[in-house]
User: What shape does this take?
Amino acid sequence: MAITLADLVANRTMSPAIAATLATAAAEKRSILVAAIPRLAGKTTTLMAALAHAPPGTPLHPLSRDAGPHFGMPPEPDGGYLFMAEISGVGFPEYLWGAEVRTVFERVARGGLSLATSLHAGSLAEAFEVIGRENSVPDQHASLIDLFVYIRSLGHWERPDRRVVAEVSEVDGVSGGLPEGRLLHRWDEATDRFEDIEPPERIGAVVDRRAKLTRFESSGQQA
Assistant: This one.
């Protein structure tokens, strides 16, 4: 059975507020970027749990080099998500790099599709350095990312004791390769508490985030 956002709240990977933000972002078909440094940190698990809250019937297009020159992107926009498993040059078919990444961002920029992807980085700035400097994605295309999620893996990376969503930021745009926006949520390691820093300004403009938060807090079930 697929792991849900409610499961990730229950095992303290994230707070109900973080889950509500992720669920709302997917419900509004926002583009989402998840980052972590080690492997097995739960990037894909978190993305898929969030995307389960996209509107019913939203197409999901997993991208792969094996799918041909267009990597499995639909010929016409269908309101779905392009799922680029990872921005990485390690060579797996589902991991895209360089011109391939730029092609995906260019396709999203034409409208009618959203992006869900991940990469290895330790912060918001590092993540956009990978996108902009290492993959030469221009600022206007990198600005398509709406939400950034950073996950920490605690303990040995192959057998972590726990995974924690340490930061969630709303991204307004990118200028000179640097992301602009605001920190929404963070995890304080010293107290082992999740903190809400600022409310989203754009996420939740269409879908009622407060209703999702109430349901995550009160029932422990998917909002």
